Structure formats: structure tokens, C-alpha cells
């Protein structure tokens, strides 16, 4: 995981250098932000001539998804209070996916720590190398480095979609995220896609309630409206 996703730091370093961002600034972004999608969104908006404040706002919205991961991981990992601020910096797609895939708390903590450490070290190292060697590396799209992170995350997510409800949430989120990508600012489609979960659960709840009411009505018709003692109420 660390190697596969950490290599994406090359793509970010090259992209940042091509956007006119200095090597030092690119490295600071990776050290302090450490969420690849937000970093790519920021430098992409700047490269397109966007306002720095608008670019930062888009990156911020895209990064807020990590807050939802944090809510779940805080219960799963149950780390001591002094470690929580440090661990929060490593709450990203990959660490959340690895932790949630484990069967017990000890394994989840180990998965979170190993994934977070390896990714943090490799991401920052390859950011530096990518920014320094931008001209030598050339077009990152030809290498496919920018696709490594999403590919690994999807590979981890797919086995977790065991029920029809979970698969419905994933499909709806995909439709919302990709469908709104051309019309909404960077980061907003991801937040809208998060509405897939409550939407599917709401529809499932209505469906179950409807079935329950139909079952009760059918039972009343067959019992002639009698109660448990066989007399009419």
C-alpha cells in the first residue's frame, strides 16, 4: 500500500512544479496537508489560472471527507488521548480502508500505523523527488502514477461491499460524484456523493415499513380482525 500509493507523490511533485509552485512549497504541502486529492485539486486549480483562495476552498471541501473517516476510526481504534492529534494527521482514504478491513482492534491499529507511516514517508520523499526531477520524469499521465492511489483504494473497497444496500450506496455515490464533476467546484461532488448513504438507507427504511404495513394488513384480513384470544376487539 505504501509503495503503490506513495509513488503518486511523484505525480504531485511534477504537477506542482509544472504549476509554478516551488519545490519547498510543494514539500510543505505534502508535510502539512497530506491528502493527495486535495493537493492535486489545489495545484490543478492554480495551474488553470484560478484564484488562490478559490483553489484553497476547493481543496478544503475535498479534504473534509476525512472528518467522516475520523468519526468511524475514533471508535474503532480508541487511541489514547495524547496520540489522537498525531493520528488525525494520518486519517486519509487508504489508512481508513486498511483499518476498517481488519477483524479486531489490535489489527486495525497495526494496519493504521503501518499504512500511515509508510505512506507519509514515501509520499513526502517522492514529492521531493518529483519536484526536483520534473523535467526528467515528463508527463505523469504516461506513467499512470496519478491512478495508483484510486486504484488501490477501489481494490480495498470492493471486497467490503457485501450486501445489496452497500453496493447500492457505492453505485449511487459513483453516479453523483462523476455526474456532478463537470458542473460543481472541485471537492463539492465528493461531499454530495456522501449523501448516497442516507438516501439509500432512507429508501430502504420506507421499503421495509411498507412491507411491514402490508404484512399486518394481510394478517388482519386472514384473522378476521380477531385478537390473540380469538375474539373481536
Give a description of the structure.
The chain is mainly alpha-helical and 233 residues long. The chain folds into two domains: 2-160, no CATH class; 163-223. Helix content is 74%, strand content 0%. It has helices at residues 2-6, 8-18, 23-32, 36-47, 52-63, 65-77, 84-88, 93-100, 105-132, 134-137, 140-143, 148-157, 164-180, 188-193, 196-223. Helix 2 (8-18) runs parallel beside helix 4 (36-47). The chain is globular. The chain starts with a helix and ends in a 10-residue tail after the last helix.
Name the average pLDDT: 81
Q: What amount of the residues lies in strands?
A: under 5%
Query: How much helix, percentage-wise, in residues?
Result: over 70%
Number of strands: 0
Distance between the termini: 65 Å
Uncertain ranges: none
Helices and strands, in order, run as HHHHHHHHHHHHHHH
Sheet with most strands:
none
Count of folded domains: 2
Helix vs. strand class: mainly alpha
Oligomer: single chain
Instruction: From the alpha carbons, calculate the radius of gyration and give it in angstroms.
Output: 23 Å
Shape: globular
Number of helices: 15
